[in-house]
Amino acid sequence: MRFLFVLLALLPFTSYSQEDPTEEEIRLIAENESEQRLAVKSYVLMQEGYSFFAEIITDKLLQFQPDNANYNYRKGFLVLDGRKDAAEAIPFFEKAATKVTKTPDFYSTKETAAPPDVYYYLGRVYHLMTKIDKAQEYYQKFLVNSDPNSELIPYARLKLRQCDVAVREMATPRSARVENIGKQVNGKYPDYSSVISLDGSALYFTSRRPWENNESGGFRDYRYNHFTEDVYVSYMDFDGEWMEPFRLEFCIPSRNEATIAVSPDERRIYVYEDTTGDGDIYYSNFETNRFQEVVKFENDNVNTEWWEPHIYVTPDGQTMFFSSDRPGGFGGRDIYRCVKLPNQEWSQPINLGPDVNTPFDEDSPFMAIDNKTLYFASNGPLSMGDFDIFLSRRDADNNWSPPINLGFPLNSTNDDIYYTTTTDGLRGFLTSYRDGGYGEKDIYEVKNDYLGVNAVAVLKGQIKTVNDLPIPEDVAIEITCLDCDQNAKNTVYPRLRDGIYFSSMESCHKYELVYVYDNGQKVIYTEEVQTSCSDRYDEIYRDILIDVSQPDEIVSLPKEGVATKDSIVSRPRDVSEIEKEREKKGKLTRKERKERKEKEKELQFDEFSAKDFKNPYYKHYFNYNKAKINPNRGEFKKFVKKIEEQLELGRENISINIYASASHVPTQTFESNEQLAFVRAESIKYDIIAYFQNKTEYQDRIVVTIQQSIVSGPEYEKDFYNRFKYRPYQYVEVTTE
Fold it and tell me: For the whole model, what pTM was predicted?
């Protein structure tokens, strides 16, 4: 009989029985059943998509007949399908290819031959390992020897075309650097579907790692021996290192939740869930200092009875992209687009058409901040193999350019998918399975010099509060284009964790910025901004400090500035017109007058002189139970070098004061939280002294003093996961005078 195995990854599958067997039951069957019965069970489990169980039984079959080509074929397929390990699968497929028949009997132990499909899968594993010559050889061999009706024939022809693309792209590599982001995020379990925040400070991703105390162990998916999917986030610390990830609050051990997209203000995260069986899009909002329970995205044009695995809403909130395998597309999964109508409803979905979509699969759409550059993944004929990342740009008439493969080494011959970028487009993150990884899938960072966005202005800023109090959730920035055709208006909210906000603005237009609170009813500050008419990438900064007890009173003037990707221009420190008016009316506080004098003083001294020095300052927030920093990198290195520079320029002496804190979260490493705070202070003191120990000319001019080490912040409520709540009180602060 003819038997066809098709890789089952990302495809629906049927259930083995009304109640799935357990691993223990399968291992018991493997040890006690006859070879004949095991051959049948192996076949049935493979048909049903239970690769993990089928491999357990196939391993037993190979004990009976180690050289059986049919058994080796099964083993190679299961290794490739279940664990995605092409290198391990090769020897099994090679042994299987020594004896081939067009009509193997998979029910019989007397069958010692493999089907011609083994040639296709040998092509696949060599293709994945970038041994393109051997891959082409076996794909061709499969086409010559296979049944003319084999469902694998169109895939073999596709793979041959992809091999040609791989040869071309690898011969002309792009100037991109692709690096595994490391074991702090990636592990032995699959880690994938990452979404980077626009400033690169937060990475949301999906992981199949087990829960603590084996809470999720009872819900393992034994088709592939996977734990359930959960959503995690890792933040970048001040030294540019990824912190230990933590699982978001809405995750449930019995349910799959996978990251799709995150709003620019990080107040909404979109997730994929398969609770209903057909795969739909859900979301969770960040409110009252935590992510809430996920709810279904209620839009009948998006969530249907078909499969919708991905969605992305542009930073301006005006366009939505999603993928679906609904009927009427060009084949497989297609990418669709909806736009926001004047009544604030979403339009009917529009297929992006044959310039983007192919007869195969397109997925994971992501729009750059310029609202013109679309990144997406495709496993069609322009790919190097499996999914590759592509780029298409939209013109003024909403026509999409032919997709461009982003090339090697950003793309590989394996799956490369879920690409998202920071604002300038020069730093991105993707999911891939490559040599040297930690698990089946890992997350990689891509640094490049050819994918930057142009002809767009990005408004970036931060709203801070006096005494670092929490930012009111209803503070927002209303951005209105004053000379656009439709006088477009967009409301932007700052991130609640740090007050940072982003918004794109079109080049060569005038915008009104209105900072508001109380759900837009009260105004904090208003100004007009003219964006550049150049074709470059610009960043416009606006930072504001407010008093939450009187949010309509600006405590300090906005910091302003413009940066381009070609050069960084210092933020001008001129006094705002609003502050001048307030001064005339006698409304400037003593603190504000002092700050103004300091700013005017800074304007007079672009460089250090022997008369005036700005006191260096350093502050570092620690992860849980951590007490040391890396003194050879990051902001600390800049801090001590600045002190050294001032001493060289003639500063007579400098006093360095250290303040350290630990939160009330119980420590598991130190005797007490008080000791943890003290060790943090002592450690930074040692690092400063160590830096200057060989610089004898400065030692008598430096005094380092620990002024305070305390335990501070809210009382612990057994909510260790709540990093937003406790991290602000785990720090070391160093001031100078």
Answer: 0.76
